[in-house]
Amino acid sequence: MNKDVSITPKQYDFIADIQRKTLEKLAANDPVADILNSLCLLAESILPNAVASIMMLDASGGLLSVRCAPSIPTVGHEALAKLKPGPFGGSCGNAVFHNEAQYVQNTLEDERWKNLRHIAYDFNICSCWSMPVSNEHKQAIGSFALSSFEHRTPALFHKKILETCSSIVSIVLKRQLNEDRLLLLSVGFKNASEAVVITDKNNNIVEVNPAFEKIYGLCESDVLGKDPKILSSGEQGHTFYQQLWQELLLKDQWRGEITNKNQNGELVAQWMSISVIRDEHGEIQNYLSVFSDLTKLKSAQQQVVEMAFYDSVTQLHNKTYLEQQILANEQNYSLLLLNINNFSYLNTAYGFNIGDKILTAIANTLVNTFTTHETFRLNSDEFGLLFEGEINVAEQIKIIQQYFYNTLIQVEDISLHIAFTYGAAQGKKHLLHNCAIALKKAKSLGKNRYHIFDVKDDLVDDSTREGFIASNHLLYSALELDQFTPYFQGIYDNENQTIQKFEVLARIIKGDKVISPFHFLDTAKLSGLLPEITRIIVDKSFKIMSDYDYIFSINITEDDLSQNYLLDYLEEKTGQYKIQPQRVILEILEGVSATGKKNHINQLNELKAKGYLLAIDDFGTEYSNFERILELDIDYLKIDAKYIKDIDLNEKSYEITRAITFFAHNANIPCVAEFVHSKPVQTVVTALGINYSQGYYFSKPSPLPIIT
After folding, report:
1. How open is the CA angle 134-139-143, to the nearest 5 degrees?
2. How far is CA 371 from CA 377, 426, 574, in A?
3. Is 35 exposed, middle or buried (0-12, 13-18, 19+ CB in 10 A)?
4. Is-contact 53 72, C-beta < 8 A?
């Protein structure tokens, strides 16, 4: 399905993660400022090169100002202060003015930014998407926005993120109002709208107000002359009241939470403030009690807890509850994760509404059919079954497999066979983590498989973990200290017998050490840093190549294509350094061309149309889609080094290379042999008619594109 009209399960997981983390902070009573800051930073993490902001209306003046924007400097807050909502007031001004979402792709041209054009230029805001924040009456009281330093149009996922964050801001602000109200109550209410009870010096009721009658269902005649203990629910014992009276008589006041009951016997949670009223001689004359009904607030707090700990679709406890309320006890359990096979296809085929009903049906089946301690929904397509103690996991999996093999899941008029891939772990510590490792291993074996965690085989050893940590530290240090630099390796033309092209290679220069990608490439991919490294290498290599006339190639990853920035960024740098696009070869891995997403293929075709050349790198590593390569009008094929390095000795390598060369010649695509390191290898490469050779035999990587 086109990503512009659908949200993937992984993306739904991210949305759920934002909700979970925010609601956890709400449940923990974190400060509102901290919660809103965290929400903005979570939203920013899904859209690189963008900042999140929350603006709120001033109720008296009707103007917008920044409430929260942790990544925007103070000068930006000041520039946006007292913004008047209106048709030319930017994305946020329009969102509040029209009370509907605004998605501005180009702030420098869009009429909606007419009055804020100077801000767009001053702060390099290229696009801005804003969602109104509404109160309980559906009126816009502010906005939640993502402002990008690139021209962008939001996908459905981004719109859902904005909608989710806007809704959370509304909840948080409403919660803050309730907390403010509770704070006021803590210093004593004397507002007639609150329940007020006045007793005499013997603590017999002499006066109540209408609010009291409304709360308790008791009129004045029912309670006059009686002790307020007639309202007692029994929830507080003798010790509670003894301490209350001790403090009251010592300090002349007492404040606290108490649970009473009304005429119908229903519990009423209240905040009570009692003050002693003395006469001019200091003798007790009366007691004044002011009550505030906390029932609704308590209910709202309970709803927050339920939202933090329950899955809204299946009503099962969620991952947070499993981690915090169950596994934290470190008792001996057996945990089984069930990942639904092909659930994304079910969502695509039937829609998310039916998908949710399928999940609910599966949840009910798991709860009602199998004897467990508890059943959980952990992720979009993943359930957890928890068993007390250690069980025969393999036998339990067979029982579940057999049941679902013989039983159809019925949803409306749809009948489905459901199957799972399983991961299991047993013990007291790190149970969920170990289970996830087991599930990942089971998925690598194929669908309908299971794997039971084995501490000896499945745990990452300390040396591997330490290696990743060291590599990750190396990466961030190199970025911070600007230690990434391009190196250039010549590509030898076998017909003209000269070096006419160069490949740009990333290196880290740390003191007198030159560190190759072997030490950081995998970690960079896991850390999501490849696009940042690509930008640096493009900028620095273009600057160097502006002094030369050589054609040169740059490695492009799938991560670069996923961020959709290449076309604009390359155009910016070719213009800055006066580099003709025809001089630049973009090397992409074979898998990108063979199985790449539609958006990636579209980007490559757009780059090709701009004049950039395309090369398939490491060709022969995977099963290529040869038709796709022809459709992309590839300019070069670079034969994978593993076939070239021993081509003079290995018959299999020779035959594979010969077949690739034959295909390339017939398709009129020039070939480059990588890892040409000796004369015997070069002799075979030349005999096969391969157009170019690259390797240490002709050129070692160096800081400048110099032919030696």
Report:
1. 40
2. 16, 17, 65
3. buried
4. yes
Phi, psi angle pair for 62, to nearest 5°: 70, 25
- Environment class of 459 (CB within 10 Å of its CB; exposed 0-12, middle 13-18, buried 19+): middle
**184 has pLDDT over 80:** no
pLDDT at 352: 87
Beta-carbon count within 10 A of 292 CB: 23
- Which among 212, 292, 287, 299 is positioned nearest to 252, based on CA atoms? 287
CATH class name, domain 3-175: alpha beta
Domain 195-298, CATH homologous superfamily name and number:
PAS domain (3.30.450.20)
Residue whose pair of structure tokens reads 């039937």 in the numeric block: 350
Question: Can you give the pTM of this predicted structure?
Answer: 0.44
pLDDT at 288 exceeding the cut of 50: yes
CATH says 466-694 is which class?
Answer: alpha beta
Residue 52 pairs in a beta bridge with 146
Bridge partners, residue 411, by sequence: 414
The CB density around residue 516, as the number of other CB atoms within 10 Å, is 13
Every domain of the chain with CATH number 3.30.70.270 lies at: 310-458
Cα distance between residue 284 and residue 11, in whole Å: 65
The Cα–Cα gap between 112 and 312 comes to 37
Both structure tokens of 36? 């809103």
User: Where does 310-458 sit in CATH, by number?
Assistant: 3.30.70.270
Question: Angle, nearest 10°, between helix axes 32-44 and 156-186?
Answer: 170
Instruction: Tell the burial category of 267 from Cβ atoms under 10 Å away from its Cβ (0-12, 13-18, 19+).
Output: middle
pLDDT digits (tens, 9 = 90+) for 536-594: 999 999 999 999 999 999 999 988 998 889 999 999 999 999 999 999 999 997 656 54
Q: What is the pLDDT of residues 429-458, one digit of tens each?
A: 888 989 998 999 898 888 889 999 987 776
**Tell me, what's the pLDDT at 521?**
87
User: Once rounded to an integer, what is the mean pLDDT over residues 612-619?
Assistant: 90
Length of the chain: 708
- Looking at residue 418, what is its pLDDT? 92
